[in-house]
Amino acid sequence: MRKGDEYLASLRDDREIYLDGSLVPDVTGHPAFAPVARTVAELYDLAADPLTDMTYVAPETSREANRVFAIPRSRDELAARRHAIEIWARHTHGWVGRGPDHVGAFLAGFASCPGAFAAGPRDLAANVSAHYRRLLDESLFVTYAIIPPQFSRAGTAHGWDDEFIQVGVVAERPAGLVVRGAQMLATGAAVADEILVSCIKPLTDQDRDFAVSFLLPLATDGMRLHCRRSYATGATSGYDYPLSSRYDETDALVVFDDVLVPWDRVFVDRDVAGLRRQFFDTGAHVLGNSQAQIRFVAKLRFILGLARKIAAVNETDRIPGVQEKLGELASLASVVESAVLAAEYRAAPDGNGMWRPDPRALYGAMGLQAELYPRVLAIVRDLAGGGVLQLPASVRDMAAPGIRGDLDRYVRSPGVAAEDRVKLFKLVWDAVGSEFAGRHHQYEMFYAGAPFVAKGYAYRNYGYEQAVADVEEFLASYSID
Ligand SMILES: Cc1cc2nc3c(=O)[nH]c(=O)nc-3n(C[C@H](O)[C@H](O)[C@H](O)COP(=O)(O)OP(=O)(O)OC[C@H]3O[C@@H](n4cnc5c(N)ncnc54)[C@H](O)[C@@H]3O)c2cc1C
Q1: Are 69 and 134 in contact (CB under 8 A)?
Q2: pLDDT over 80 (residue 162)
Q3: In the predicted model, what is the mean pLDDT of residues 241-260?
Q4: Of 29, 298, 346, 426, which residue is the least packed, with the fewest Cβ within 10 Å?
């Protein structure tokens, strides 16, 4: 199994990453990227530790692989996969959305159904299977950029001013496809091994050139990442910003400047229907998003723990109104956890023998996420009050003898020393109020598509037959007479 150090060493390549006006020479040595790379390295070390029991013998390779990448072929395998994902999610407490297990699950879904990639103008199924085997053998960290850049949402790529704002095929060569344009918003790409580039937004028949799917190493000629502002570099210390300083995954616009994609890395070639087959016929979308919900459960539990501790430290937990707020948080977290378990309980094998988590339960939870997460944050802010601002500017105040006296005397609670109180409330601020927290607010609302998209999945996957039949049966039981 891949070790953390091996992963870090593999990041030292020719990837073209831009931040604050400069090319980043080595992400593992840069303050914006090194912390999250270290966190991912810890995940690899966890998976390699026999005590975590995260490995299995993959039938596709007959070799040991990480269970987070498995194609589940029974309910037990689905549960074992969840346990492995939970181990990683607990390590980051859900604050890393795009660990290697997210897109890895999409690739497992793709590989479960090679036929979906053989049904287009060109049979590309062997590429998908070969790269899945590589994922299993090498424990790759693959991320993705599958959304067109925000240019105009009134139409699709073929109608945009410049033909290639969204990434598309400009030429075909004997060696592969030449692609040009951009795609948003690749989380974790700066510290990933490879990137899956595709489009999940619906396209029209006129968008054929943009209907592609391919996998590239981050160090590919002509591919560049333009990263958003780093929150890790603004974290003055681990005590002041305990989350920003470890888990800032980074997000980036990915630009393709006439990049050659070798044929063996192409999954979908100018095939609009092929994109839908890729994400939805294969079951990749449910498998990938079940990972996301398992991760979300760990995060909600962590935030719930923060809320409970705020109420205990401030001694508000004796107040019935506060208990009600804690109860609402408990309800929200339990609903998501229950949906994850229900999706597993009601899972069933698809035509390819992959056990798919139940889409009704899974998309039901996802459809609520854009309201649920902001509500969770609002309750924690409500409970925290000004405590998240009645704080010294930085850890340096805690170390300054002339200042520390006041802090020890006035910034404490019964039985809780200043150092611990400040530590807790700084963590709370990084979870609900810092720039890192603001990005997480946006992430939970948008990572799987805009809220209207997530609700669309819930609408299409509920299965209204029984509900409508129940109403019709009731309507038939009485009449105007
Ligand atoms: C922090 C973060 C990380 C992300 N990471 C990744 C990643 O790793 N990989 C990746 O591929 N993508 C990623 N995304 C992108 C994400 O997938 C998109 O944000 C998402 O698909 C929504 O697209 P959009 O942002 O362009 O919003 P838009 O589609 O522009 O929608 C924005 C809003 O406009 C309105 N609207 C637009 N169209 C309609 C419509 N047809 N009907 C009704 N209302 C409409 C709605 O109010 C909607 O919420 C990330 C996003 C965020 C915020």
Answers
A1: no
A2: no
A3: 98
A4: 29
Mean pLDDT over 426-433 rounds to 98
Which ligand 1 atom is at minimum distance from the Cα of 188?
A: 8
Which residue puts its alpha carbon closest to atom 49 of ligand 1? 450
pLDDT tens string 374-414: 999 999 999 999 999 999 999 999 999 999 999 999 999 99
Taking CB atoms and a 6 Å cutoff, what residues make up the pocket around ligand 1? Answer: 98, 143-147, 150, 153, 184-187, 251, 439, 442-443, 446-447, 449-452
CA of 307 to the centre of ligand 1 (A): 29
Long-range contacts, 328-334 (Cβ 8 Å, 24+): 328/375, 328/379, 329/303, 329/304, 329/376, 329/379, 329/380, 330/304, 332/300, 332/372, 332/375, 332/376, 333/297, 333/300, 333/301, 333/303, 333/304, 333/376
Buried b / exposed e across 173-199, counting CB within 10 Å, b at 16+?
eeebbbbbbbbbbbbbbbbbbbbbbbb
User: Within 10 Å of residue 377's Cβ, how many Cβ atoms?
Assistant: 19
Contact by Cβ (8 Å): 380, 431? yes
Report whether 35 contacts 249 (CB < 8 A).
Answer: no
Write down the pLDDT at residue 161: 85
The answer, yes or no, to whether the previous bond of 185 is cis (omega within 30 of 0) is: yes
Task: Please give the C-alpha separations between residue 71 and each of 28, 86, 92, 200, 268, in angstroms, as whole numbers.
Answer: 31, 17, 24, 21, 21
Query: Looking at 253, 281, 309, which one is the last position of a domain?
Result: 281
42 and 164 belong to one structural domain:
yes
Report yes or no on 481 lying in a domain: no
The continuous run of DSSP H or E covering 217 comes out as strand 213-217
- Same-domain status, 273 and 289: no
Confidence band for 163, pLDDT divided at 50, 70 and 90: confident
**CA 222, CA 467: separation in Å to the nearest integer?**
53
Q: Which of 229, 249, 281 is the last residue of a domain?
A: 281
The closest alpha carbon to 281, from 332, 198, 351, belongs to: 351
DSSP string, 423-451: HHHHHHHHHHTSHHHHHHHHHHHHBTB-H
Beta-strand relationship, 213-217 and 168-173: unpaired
Indicate whether 193 and 298 sit together in one domain: no
